[in-house]
Design brief:
alpha+beta; five-stranded antiparallel β-sheet; four-stranded mixed β-sheet; 3 helices; disordered C terminus
Length: 152
């Protein structure tokens, strides 16, 4: 199972992680992105995500393929939510399994950073003062440089 899925359904990290089983896996690394109650000094009440799922999943498959080319990972999976999310909800989940931890960490970081930059997913923040606004998710990873992986 190596894919990126865009879904309106709640993310259940335990189930997703349990599905990433490979006999040669010595490492599992997961990332759980949750909705937080503050952003850039403003109190956030909830978020809304919209996505162009067909393109996001296609580009997501490219990201996973790139990670597989760069590091000897065995499998990777990413799920990104759409719809209205409350504080504490999981917005995105990434899991990677590999023979060793170094490449699992590096690939997981690469996947989440690239998902934030390249996928057509838009986030609207609803603030506690009644205001709201669309946020450019691309800036979440702006300026981040990926380093080459070393054998772990």
């Amino acid at each position: 199972m190596s894919e990126v899925v865009i879904s309106p359904h709640p993310i259940v990290p335990g189930e997703l992680g349990a599905a990433l089983t490979e006999p040669g896996a010595g490492a599992f690394v997961g990332f759980e992105g949750r909705v937080r109650n503050r952003n850039e000094g403003r109190a956030v009440e909830r978020l809304e995500y919209e996505a162009y799922a067909p393109l996001a999943e296609k580009e997501g498959a490219r990201i996973i393929a790139e990670a597989c080319e760069r590091w000897p990972i065995l499998s990777a999976h990413c799920v990104h939510r759409t719809g209205m999310l409350e504080i504490g909800d999981y917005a995105v989940w990434v899991g990677v399994v590999s023979p060793h931890r170094d490449e699992a960490f590096a690939a997981c970081r690469y996947i989440i950073d690239e998902v934030k930059v390249r996928l057509p997913i838009w986030k609207k923040e609803y603030y506690t003062d009644g205001d709201s606004g669309w946020v450019n998710c691309e800036r979440c990873a702006a300026g981040h440089q990926h380093e080459s992986a070393s054998a772990g």
